[in-house]
Every structure is written in C-alpha cells, then in structure tokens.
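A common beginner's mistake is to predict each chain separately and then try to dock the pieces by hand. The better habit, illustrated here, is to supply every component at once so that their relative placement is modeled jointly.
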Amino acid sequence: MSVSPFLFWLLVALTILFAAAFAATLSFALRQRVRMKLRPNFGKPPVPHVAIDRWNDIFKSTGLGPNRDSEIAFIGQSGALASINDTETWVLGALAKKARRIFEFGTATGRTTYVLARNAPGDAKIDTLTYFDDGTGDAEFNADDPDAEKWKQIALGESRYDKFYYEDTPVAHKVAQHFGDSAKFDEAPYEGKVDLIFVDGAHSYSYVKSDSAKALRMVAPGGFVLWHDYSPRCPGVYKALNELGRELPLAHLKGTTLVAYRKPA
Ligand SMILES: C[S@@+](CC[C@H](N)C(=O)[O-])C[C@H]1O[C@@H](n2cnc3c(N)ncnc32)[C@H](O)[C@@H]1O
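With all components supplied together, the output reads:
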C-alpha cells in the first residue's frame, strides 16, 4: 500500500506535535510538584497512603464489615461549616473512645469537639483551642508564608464562633474551651499527657509547623496525633507534613485527608 507524501508528513507532524505536548505537560506537572516541595517525583512518598483497617486494629474488618470496636455515636457532616467528613468523624470518634485527655487545635463550630466528647470515656477531658477574631489582629500570621494573605483570610473567616455545638449538651462538662492564638499557646502543662490530639487550626505553613511541634510535645506515650486537610489544596499543611514525614512514621489514611502519628508507648 502506498501512502501519499502529504499524508505521510501530516502523520509525522501530528506525532511530533502530540509527543511535544505530552512532554511539556509532564515536565510542567513534575516541576510544579518540585516547586511546591510537595513530594519527591520518584521514590517513596514521605507520608504513605494506608488503608484505615490496616493502620489500626480497631478498624479491622470482620469480613462482613468494620468490627464493633469502631462503633461510635455519630453526627454527620452535612450542614456543618469548615468541618471534617463522615469517614474522618468515624476515625476520630473511634479513637476518642479510649482517650482520657484530648486536645483540638481549631474548634470552629465545635461539631468535632462534640463528637470527641460524646465518644470519650465519662471522665475524659477535651481541651479545644480556637481563635476569635475581634479585629485586634493579635495573631502571628507570618507574611512570608506562601499565599500568606489568602490563608490568613481563610483562618480569620473561620474565627467567628463564640457559641459552640457541644454547649447545652450532656457532654458539655467534658469540654474546656480556650480562646487565643495557637502560636502563643503554652503547651507546657500538657507535655506528654494527651492521648489524642487533633491539629486543625490555621492552615498556613508556619502555623501548621508551630501547632505540630506543640502537639508532638503534648502527646502521651502510645497516644495519637491526627492532622486534617493533608491535600495539595492546602499547600501549607501538605508541605509541613511531607517534611515531618521524613522524620516520623506518619500515615495518610485512605478516603480521608487525615494524617496520623502514633507515639511509641
Ligand atoms: C478548619 S476550622 C476547624 C474545624 C474543626 N476542627 C472541625 O472539625 O469542625 C479552623 C479553626 O482554626 C482556628 N484558628 C485559625 N487560626 C488560628 C490561630 N492562629 N490560633 C488558634 N486557632 C486558630 C479557627 O478559629 C477555626 O476555629
């Protein structure tokens, strides 16, 4: 079969065009990942993706479904503002069942605080810290963070709650509400004492670094630290945890944006 020279050169030109477009797209994507310091292009990711039932035995499947150690009192995400999804709620609620001291960075509406309090033992205490934006601008937002102004405005937008979901409920007595800038929060009284810590405060890189350092000092032997919003859509969280994942065994729980760490007992 003979191919006309025109068709031949057309096919050659199209092949070159597609190859060039493919190479340009690939190179852009790889450079983008490196620029954002999100994760290496090759080799093991710093925060491996782990199925929830493989991460912790309480979520292990019986073959018919999750085992009942993970059963919780549950309130769904629908209608909640700035909160965690249903799988994330399940994970935190189930971990709370064995936690006597719990600390949350970032209360927002207090829906997650309520789930934690509702599932924690009767004598548990939940400390939750939030910022209330009264216009004084006394929080230490770092102007050198990537997209600093955008993440500051997001944090302030979520800092307008002074009434909370858990109030006037039968578990309200378990909750101690703290107001203030997490960067200025003194974690010394909590050092090595907290069984479950949820880091979900300001999402800029500097705050995630500072809140994480405090959480890691506060966590008790055998206790858990969980972070929310590990996703390229929150580059400050993503970058800080990818860096931490090079020092500590972190796990990104599948089906969630949670990253989890368990301190050795
Ligand atoms: C994403 S919301 C938390 C959602 C909540 N954990 C939940 O699951 O429903 C972020 C919270 O972090 C708080 N926050 C933002 N900047 C803060 C800061 N500098 N210090 C302390 N809390 C801060 C906000 O006030 C808000 O309560």
